What does this fold into?
Amino acid sequence: MRVRFFLAALLLVTHASFGANTASKGKSPPAPIEAAVRLADWQLARMHDGAPVSRKTHETSNPRAWEQAAFWVGMTALADAGAPPRIREAILAMGRANQWLPGAKPYFADDHAITQSYLWAATHGAGAEAREPTRKLFDKVIDEPAVTTLAFFVPPEGYGAAECLKRWCWCDALFMAPPAFVEMTRQTQDERYRAFATKEFWATTDFLFDPAEHLYYRDSRFFERRDAKGRKMFWSRGNGWVFGGMARIIPGLAADSPDRKRMESLFVEMAARLKQLQKPDGYWPPSLLAPEESPPETSGTAFFTYGLAWGIRTGLLPREEYAPVVKRGWDALLRAIQPDGRLGWVQQVSDRPESVEPGDTQYYGVGAFLLAATEIAALNEAGR
It folds into this structure.
C-alpha cells in the first residue's frame, strides 16, 4: 500500500518525459538545470521499473537502498538549484513513504546513503521527524562501533557476508555514509557524528589510496590485480564516489580544521590526476588507466565533472586550468542522453570496470548527472 501511495504521489508531481536530445538535432544544448529537470522527470516517471535498469539486483527496487538513494541525493541538489517545486515535493513524498527509515543493515554504509535526502528534508519542510530515525541509527553506530579489519574477504556465504562491510572498507562507502554524518553534526551541533566520519574516512583512505597513482583501489581485493597489460585496476565510478563524496563532506568541516585542510589537499591531488586521465571525447574510461578502446561511461564521468566544477567554484582549483576539463565532461554527458530521454552509457551495478552499452542507465547515474548539472549551473553563474 505504501509503495502504491508513493508511486501515485510521484505521478502528481511529475511532468511527461521529454523527447530526443536537442544537441543531437543541431540545436543549442539545454541549460544545465533545464537538462537536469527533464532527466529527473523522466526518471521519476519510471521509479517502478528502474528506468529500466539493465542489470537489476536485489536492491534495485528497494527505495531505501543505495541505487535509488544516489538519485535522491542528486534530487536534493537540484531542488536547491531552483528547480520547480515538484522536485522538492517528490523528495518529501519519497521520505514519507519510507517513514524516514534508513536501510535495514545498521552498520552498512550503502544503507546510510538514503539518509542524506532525509536530512535535507528535515530542513526543507519535513521537520525533525525526518531526522530522528537516522539520528537513532547513527548513535548506535558511534556508541557500539564495529570492530573489524578493513581487509575485504568474501566468505563462502557470498559478498554480502564480508565482515569488513560493517566499516567503510570499499571506496564507494565514502560517498554513501560520511556526508550524512557530517550533516548530522551541522543540524544537531553534536560533534560526535563529524568526528566519527572523519576518523573512518581517514582509516579508509590510509588503507585504499594509492599515493603513486593518486587514486583509490575499490577495496583490498584489487591491490594485486592487474589488467592484461599489467596495469593497476582503478575503477572510474569507484573513484567518482570518493571524489563526489569529498565535495559533499568538505563544506561541513570547520574552515580551519586539520581535517578540512587535509581533505582539500587530497581533493586537489586527485583532481590533478583525473585531469590527466580524461579522454579527448570528454569521458573517463571505466578502468582509469586503460583508455584505449574504452566505451563512454557516464556515472564516473558525471561524478568527476561534478567534483571538478565544485572545486573551481569554491576556489580549490584554478578555473583556467580545469574549466576546459569540466566543459568536455559536461558536453559528453549531454551527448549520452538517448532519443527516449534516458541517460545512457551508465555502467551497471558492479565493483570493477566492465563493458557498457548505449541504453544502459541506472538511478545512481541519473543522480550523478543531477549533481553535475547543478554545479555546472552554479559555476556558470559564478563566472558572470
